[in-house]
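Pilot study result, target chain (241 residues):
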Amino acid sequence: MSESFEVSRRALLGGAVAFTAATLAPGVVLYARSSDEPATGAVRWGLLIDVNQCKGDCNACVEACNTEFGLVSHGRPDTDPQWVRKVTVTDPETGVSQSFPVMCQHCAHPPCADVCPTGASFRRADGIVLINRHICVGCRYCEMACPYKARNFVHENVTDQKPYAPRGKGTSEACTMCVHRIDEGRIPACVEACAASGRAAMLFGDLNDPNSDIAKRVAAVNSAQIRADLRTDPGVRYQGL
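Predicted structure:
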């Protein structure tokens, strides 16, 4: 269910990009914390993706996400749910292409939350952007506002839902950074699958902790945020882009 999109590297970093939007649904609460302690702003969860280690023929992260959340194809690529998708960008000057995953960027200032009329789209204190399916009315404003085309809308009836991520027809949805795993002290499914594939292109951790592996790497190498000019301050960064 992975798709490849050919866009210029310059457009990705500096201009509007035509990624694909998926579709999703209504429902119940999006996540359940396993701890009585609330999320805290002392932590900011994030991802660092090493584009040079990501190969176009590898879809381990996409497949892991689909399995984790029960996302299945209905044979309609334009509306099939996909929270992580592979994107290919090409430098127009050199012709060099790079492939890497794009998902909800978990912005510090999420446009999706700004335009949501019910407050269904919100940012948790630890930086994870989520959707409360109880109060999502399916207006899809968040999909239009997201500059990363990371929101989906559920067009189909949903069966065999995961207890930690209920979904439903008529609401919007997107990558949750596997919040249910994070709250249990585990890493996101895409990161785990990437490591198991032997590429280790994805690094997860607390960007606010200077002693974390991700914070050390961000401090040591050049990395970029997609559309940094919009000042949404994504929690997902890309090395080698």
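One observation from the pilot: The chain has a mean pLDDT of 87. A full batch analysis is planned for the follow-on phase.
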